[in-house]
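FORM 7B - TANDEM STRUCTURE REPORT

SECTION 1: FIRST PROTEIN
SEQUENCE AND TOKENS:
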Amino acid sequence: MNISSSYNSFTQSEKETDVLTEASEGFNLIVWNDDVNTFDWVIETLVKICGHTEEQAEQCSILIHFKGKCAVKKGSYEMLKPQCDAINERLINATIEELVA
């Protein structure tokens, strides 16, 4: 974040304005593919931990398998961190990535 200042000669006052140089759009919870976990285990995990429907979880697991990863949830870091930890505790690799505008 940069701070810029401007001077108004009519009012003889100076004001500082915060200028946001890089805006965060939130975070993605990413689940990564591996050769160990089954589709059923990943689907069960996404339903239990992320609150997905069976259909959502199945679609995410297919994307994880064929694309190598899938953003399974979007939100604040504080919201996603416990879910990421819970997925990792089930021995499924998950990370949190910041979205940048």
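SECTION 2: SECOND PROTEIN
SEQUENCE AND TOKENS:
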Amino acid sequence: MTPGAPSRGLERRDAMRGLVRAAAMLALAAALPARADDVPTVRVELDDGKISTRRIELPARKRFRVEVVNKGKTPAEFESLPLGLELVVAPGSTRTRVLPGKSPGTYPFFDEFHMETTRGEFVIK
């Protein structure tokens, strides 16, 4: 063994560790969800059997956030069975959920506690 040979081995090993760490960080960053600012938000207001909107249009295959505000004096349960979305919202509260992009179609929603007067639909195009 020549002098300096072990040090070159250590340098190579340290360089490889650095590359592995960098690759792991890139893979982790790619797997993380998009920043919250990058996700469009749709707001639905419920008020004891009244609803602010009945039709929400969104682009296909793009994540989106649903924000449900309960302005009423009774609880609300915002639900869309085909989207797998269910949010129980206390009076005076707001709940949100980010959903993955969906295929084109029409997805009904309603407040389960006031089904007759709060029906609407997400229209994904």
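SECTION 3: OBSERVATIONS ON SECOND PROTEIN
The radius of gyration is 24 Å.
The first helix runs from residue 5 to 31.

SECTION 4: SIGNATURE
Preparer initials: ____
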